[in-house]
Amino acid sequence: MPQFFPGPWFAIFLSSWIIYLTILMSKMNNFKYQNNPMLQIMKKENPQPWNWPWT
After folding, report:
1. Which pTM was predicted?
2. Are 9 and 2 in contact (CB under 8 A)?
């Protein structure tokens, strides 16, 4: 039974996954965001008190 002898198919399986992952990782690393996120300035605004003219 060929599954008990991992010689030929395991080498093909391992080499194909290594090739696949190197191609995939190079394509993923070339991807760049179009809009780089920028930190927003955190400024706390002082709220104005409400004016209740009828009280």
Report:
1. 0.43
2. yes
